[in-house]
Amino acid sequence: MKSIGVGVIGTGFMGKAHSIAYSSSASVFGTSLRPKLEIVCDLSPSRAKNRATDLGFARYTDKWQEVVNDPKVDLISVCTPNNTHAEISLSALKIGKHVWCEKPMSSSLNDSVEMVNASKISRSKTIIGYNYTKNPIVLHAKKIIEEGKLGNLAGFFCRYDVDNEADQEKSWSWRMSKKLSGTGANGDILSHVISVAHFLIDSKISKVVGDINIVHKLRQDPKEDNKLKPVDNDDMVSALVHFDNGVKGHIGASRVSWGKKCGLTWEIHGTEGTIMYNQERLNEIKLYTKSDDSSCNGFRTILSGPEHPFYSSFLPNGGHGLGFMDVKICELQGLLLAIENNTDTWPNFEDGLAIERVMDSIDASSVNRQWIDIKH
């Protein structure tokens, strides 16, 4: 079994998720390319040291450059604030390292274009962390669509609502800054919606009209008592969308919707049926296909099971269910197979740029109040 040295930059939620995936992938899939946890990075040396101990890394550092340039590291995870994604990824690609970058790609469209250009020059593999497209039951939904069981596709409708920032008393963070994060709900969660749209419809969004809302315009400064800081990116975002292949729909996201924990829901309507999904019930889809006997018509629930890609590597029977971290392991497995067999990944940086162009156009449309055509 060959090994591949990995380095993780950033030790927050996603840095931990990447590290758990690296630790688990060989045990789950028996892959011939086994990740080896070489080095982890955090701006805080003490936190980096603790994460190295907790997650099983051989070394730690507070300088991301040391991870990128480590001769034992061939695969870099970029799990840092959005405005640092480009610099780290470009540095890694320049010296031939593979890159697993969390979404969104960067905090500006220009940076994302530069990342794509670098990836085309490099022979390394890239992937963006749009993990909701890697769930076995979602992969099965794509298969159902490709087999034509819904007929001709007509509509795509998707929202992703959370209450992470719903409390007005919550302090300001970098996610609420256009300079540090780029857009708000648009980049952080609507990006997932767009990734699902492109993946399942198998066509790019090519025309949008969008709207945004900043619900909590001022937040407590976390560094100074009795001082408020302005929020200058979106709390809520919505858009009407047209796809290249003629499908139309609407999408939206909110980071301030009380009671919504991981409220990613989507529906795809076709001329012969409808399919629905709810991320808070991530082990099932609901499928309606018309039949000759209208008395038996209705949605049926399909539970994830060993018949669906990746599931059987975790569990022998359906109904037990996978979780968020399991799906992250599936995402990594796709990348490892691409590295090992020199095949394509999805979404690579070029696919990610298409998502970024949609996000950017929705943001621009919310300002000029007009439909925008997107050139991919």
Write up what this structure looks like.
The chain has helices spanning 13-29, 45-55, 64-68, 85-94, 109-121, 136-146, 178-181, 185-201, 324-341, 349-368, and strands spanning 2-9, 33-41, 59-61, 75-78, 98-101, 126-128, 153-161, 205-213, 218-220, 228-230, 236-243, 248-254, 263-270, 273-278, 284-289, 300-303, 372-373. With 376 residues, the protein is of the alpha/beta class. It has two domains: 2-131, NAD(P)-binding Rossmann-like Domain (Rossmann fold, 3-Layer(aba) Sandwich), CATH 3.40.50.720; 133-368, Dihydrodipicolinate Reductase, domain 2 (2-Layer Sandwich). A hairpin with a 4-residue loop joins strand 11 (236-243) and strand 12. The protein is globular, with a radius of gyration of 21 Å.
The structure class reads alpha/beta
What is the second-level CATH architecture of the largest domain? 2-Layer Sandwich
Low-confidence sequence ranges: none
CATH class of the largest domain: Alpha Beta
Supply the number of structural domains.
2
The CATH homologous superfamily name of the largest domain equals Dihydrodipicolinate Reductase, domain 2
* Strands, total number: 17
Largest sheet: 9 strands, mixed
Count, helices:
10
Quote the CATH topology of the largest domain.
Answer: Dihydrodipicolinate Reductase, domain 2
Strand order of the largest sheet: 16-15-14-13-7-12-11-8-17
| Morphology | globular
* Percent of residues in beta strands: 25-35%
Question: Mean pLDDT across all residues, rounded?
Answer: 96
